[in-house]
Write a structure and sequence with these properties.
Chain B: Pfam families: BPD_transp_1 (PF00528). Chain B: Keywords: Cell membrane, Membrane, Transmembrane, Transmembrane helix, Transport. Chain B: This is Sugar ABC transporter permease. The complex is a heterodimer. Chain A is mainly alpha-helical. Chain A has two domains: about 10-55, no CATH class; about 70-235, Orthogonal Bundle (MetI-like fold). Chain A is built from 14 helices and no strands. Chain A has helices at about 5-35, 40-45, 55-65, 70-100, 105-115, 120-135, 140-145, 150-165, 170-175, 180-190, 195-210, 215-220, 225-235, 245-270. Chain B has one domain (about 85-315): MetI-like fold (Orthogonal Bundle), CATH 1.10.3720. In chain B, about 70% of the residues lie in helices and about 0% in strands. Chain B has helices at about 1-5, 25-55, 70-80, 80-115, 120-130, 135-145, 150-160, 170-195, 200-210, 215-225, 230-240, 245-250, 275-285, 285-315, and strands spanning about 60, 65-70. A two-stranded antiparallel sheet of chain B has the order 1-2. In chain B, helix 11 packs antiparallel against helix 14. Chain B starts with a helix and ends with a helix. The chains are: A mainly alpha, B mainly alpha. At the A-B interface, helix 1, helix 4, helix 5, helix 6 and helix 8 of A face helix 2, helix 4, helix 5, helix 6 and helix 8 of B.
Chain lengths: ~280, ~325
């Protein structure tokens, strides 16, 4: 009846739906935790186990015996961090240009970028390997970092974001104040799009952290691989796979990602609402 | 690429800034700023892609010498029922995943935007699925959709329904893959939509409120039109990534595939275009035909992206 009571009821309904969504998106993680605390034979028993078991320690020991978990984690960290820093810089710079400046060939170059974005990665994989071998990069982290240092996805994302977030009046004002191109980029554009950058940074880090196909091809030395490749080595021959151990590895591999995500999420949450959008 | 960002060589006595800027001099810094991407693409994209085009006109097992084949690979591609079958599979899986995903993501974003409390908790939780590696997700979903021991069938039994051999029927496979993709990407897209929602000036909503607009009118007259660039982004990315799906069916159907890890399950009903590419290239060692398949995939992806782009753009123009 009263509008306050109505809005409170609507608020409760809203949160009820949101909580259902939350449970749906969290459930497979719960399931993974369940799997990582059981032996393989327990996992495939019926009825399915719904509560955690007591074999987590055993699964961890098996995991550390099977692969160089921390060594490969360090490799992943190195690659993902380097790529993220490079991508944030190169992509936001290019996106700023495409979003806010006019120059001959702009439409053509952007269309080319979008076409590049649509090229399946598999198309180039084999020749790419040949080129890397010629450069002597195969087996080193350089072969993962350099080709990923700028990408079409990030430029597209930042451009879409910048078009809405950076107002032309702001740029005009800084131009009148004598700011050159790099100053406009660094002092006007970047502060405004920090939430967009945080998102791109998290996404890039995640993508690199979880990348599997290319590191598998490029890192030929089995002692020097990234985490996902190391994990895939666990998922060996059919029938003998120790699912409890594999899930334990997958869960532990998630920890650094969660930390990065938690840091980045605060960045997004802190700035998105305020922004520079007035 | 570092040099591309440097200033041009030593400045001559008369400062270029004092001269009227024309052509290259006027725009050089803009070209320099976008050049790293294009230089990297040249070295690690264009040249490899060009080589793959060259390969597609040959017969090549990847090791021996190449033999010129002209357009034979492409002629065969057009009549290859297995390839068309994989296109059908990919498009069905993509549609089964994308439409529920975009709808759910939009609804979630609008709800998140109006929720005052626990916003950050929801946002964090909804994004989590996308953080996880596809390999792990596929293993989890493989166990959830397992015929004999799976949670999904345990659930169906509990409510008195028949079991479904999810990973052994043509539609079951597609539903399982699409469910996995929807689960992994809905929250991600919801966060993107939310970012878009928050760039809409609140004055617009206040004005709508003053004019007495109901929530639906507000959504269709203000929110949706303002969200057009974001919606476009989501659709294009979903199309490009969805039509190139590989890891999901590969890992999910690995254990049920009888002849190859790239077969896509019984009857190839989960074989996507990219899985087919891998099968032709690495199982059959037919690099020439594999390259032609990759170009076919590329054309399909472009075609779908253009259709999507046009649809969304046109809706915004009226």
């Amino acid at each position: 009846m009263s509008s306050i009571k109505g809005s409170r009821r609507r608020g409760i309904a809203l949160h009820a739906v949101l909580v259902v969504g939350l449970l749906l998106s969290a459930f497979p993680f719960y399931w993974a935790v369940i799997m990582s605390t059981h032996t393989s034979s327990e996992i495939f028993s019926y009825p399915p186990k719904l509560l955690p078991g007591s074999h987590f320690g055993e699964n961890v020991r098996n995991l550390l015996d099977s692969i160089d978990f921390f060594g490969s984690m360090w490799n992943s960290l190195l690659v993902a961090t380097s790529v993220t820093v490079l991508v944030l810089f190169f992509d936001s710079l290019a996106a700023f240009v495409f979003a806010k400046f006019h120059f001959p060939g702009r439409r053509l170059l952007f269309a080319l970028l979008m076409v590049i974005f649509m090229v399946p990665a598999q198309l180039a994989a084999i020749p790419q390997f040949v080129i890397m071998a010629k450069l002597g990069w195969i087996g080193s982290m350089t072969s993962l970092i350099v080709p990923a240092a700028a990408n079409a996805f990030g430029i597209f994302w930042m451009r879409q974001y910048m078009q809405g977030a950076i107002h032309d009046e702001l740029l005009d004002a800084s131009r009148i104040d004598g700011a050159n191109f790099m100053r406009q980029y660094w002092h006007v554009a970047l502060p405004v799009v920090r939430p967009g950058l945080a998102f791109l940074g998290i996404f890039t880090f995640m993508g690199q952290w979880n990348d599997y196909a290319w590191p598998l091809i490029a890192l030929t030395n089995p002692d020097n691989v990234t985490l996902q490749v190391a994990l895939s080595q666990l998922n060996g021959t059919h029938g003998t796979t120790d699912y409890g151990m594999v899930m334990t590895g997958a869960l532990l591999a998630l920890v650094p990602l969660l930390i990065v995500f938690a840091i980045g999420a605060r960045q997004i949450i802190g700035d998105l609402a305020k922004g520079a959008i007035k | 690429m570092a040099t591309a960002l440097d200033k041009p060589p030593a400045r001559v006595a008369d400062d270029p800034r004092n001269r009227p800027r024309t052509g290259w001099r006027k725009y050089w810094h803009l070209y320099a700023a976008i050049s790293p991407f294009y230089l990297l693409f040249l070295g690690f994209g264009l040249i490899p892609v060009g080589f793959s085009l060259y390969v597609s006109f040959h017969r090549w097992d990847g090791l021996g010498s190449m033999e010129w084949a002209g357009l034979a690979q492409y002629r065969y591609l057009l009549t290859d029922t297995d390839f068309w079958h994989s296109i059908g599979n990919t498009v069905i899986i993509w549609a089964l995943a994308t439409f529920p995903m975009v709808f759910l993501a939009m609804v979630t974003a609008v709800m998140l935007n109006s929720a005052v409390r626990f916003k950050n908790v929801y946002r964090f939780a909804y994004f989590l699925p996308n953080v996880t590696s596809v390999v792990a997700v596929a293993i989890i979903f493989g166990s959830v959709f397992s015929t004999n021991f799976g949670l999904m069938n345990a659930l169906l039994q509990a409510v008195g329904l028949d079991q479904v051999a999810w990973l052994n029927t043509p539609w079951g496979i597609k539903v399982a893959i699409a469910t996995l993709m929807t689960w992994q990407w809905t929250g991600y897209n919801a966060i993107i939509f939310l970012a878009g929602l928050q760039t809409i000036p609140s004055e617009l909503y206040e004005a709508a409120k003053v004019d007495g607009a109901n929530p639906f009118q507000t959504f269709f007259r203000i929110t949706l039109p303002m969200m057009r660039p974001v919606l476009l982004f989501v659709l294009v990315v979903s199309t490009v990534t969805g039509l190139q799906s590989f890891s999901e069916p590969q890992v999910l159907l690995q254990s049920t595939a009888n002849d190859s890890t790239y077969a896509g399950g019984p009857g190839h009903s989960g074989q996507t275009m990219v899985l087919y590419f891998f099968q032709q290239t690495f199982d059959n060692n037919d690099f020439g035909y594999g390259a032609a398949v990759a170009w076919g995939i590329f054309l399909v992806v472009i075609l779908f992206s253009i259709v999507n782009w046009r649809l969304v753009q046109r809706r915004g123009e009226d």
